[in-house]
Amino acid sequence: MSDIKIPDESLRPALEALSIRDPDVAQAFKDCGLPPVRSQEPGFDGLIRMIISQQVSVQSARAILARLIGQVDEITPENILALDDEGMKLAGLSRPKQRYARGLAADVQDGRLNLDRLPDLPDDEVIEQLIQVKGIGRWTCEVYLLFALQRQDVMPAADLALQEGMRLIKGLDARPSPKEMYTLSEGWRPYRSAAARFLWHYYHHTGIA
């Protein structure tokens, strides 16, 4: 993903619609404007990048990804399966993430997971397919839906930055739980993807991140 932060004009209609129905969003949108452009290519490469990004900072994920690409040149199932433990370690992948990456590669290579079919499936079926892969939880499924498949009504409710963004925008005393996130964002349908993008943006805009 690029470091150049270009405002994502494609989000404006959804955020303007949300601003009409939610005064808290309206004020926050007035304060910090549009989120930057952000996307992820669908497929194996994109999922490996998301696995790398789990529970590490953006900077750490970028460094690990750069080292992994240095090891394999191209992120494919074949190249991941051919990379030995030492190569994985040099790239900076933890032992669990080494297992997850290899497991995903084996599932794709052996045909247990057909990534080419996912764009044609509804959101819940995409999650059902992906969550069977060890190391891919609901957060990764929802982020894949949002950024790789560009689905319009997704809320990765377990994301801590989103929870903190919701706390700030809504003036809550405590960070909401994933269940509370789904409840709080219910009124934002069918624009929850734009809302999620905006929550990340607002969280970073506050300078807390």
Automatic annotation (TrEMBL):
What sequence ranges are listed for the domain HhH-GPD?
52-204
Q: Name the Pfam families for this protein.
A: HhH-GPD
Q: Which SMART domains match?
A: ENDO3c (SM00478)
Keyword annotations for this protein, in alphabetical order, are: DNA damage, DNA repair
The record ties this protein, via InterPro entries, to: Alkylbase_DNA_Glycosylase/TA, DNA_glycosylase, HhH-GPD_domain
What EC designation does it have?
3.2.2.21
Which enzyme type, at the first EC level? hydrolase
Taxonomy, top ranks, is: Bacteria, Pseudomonadati, Pseudomonadota, Alphaproteobacteria, Rhodospirillales
User: What domain of life does the UniProt record list for this protein's source?
Assistant: Bacteria
Q: Which reaction(s) does the protein catalyse, per the Swiss-Prot or TrEMBL entry?
A: Hydrolysis of alkylated DNA, releasing 3-methyladenine, 3-methylguanine, 7-methylguanine and 7-methyladenine
Protein name (record): DNA-3-methyladenine glycosylase II
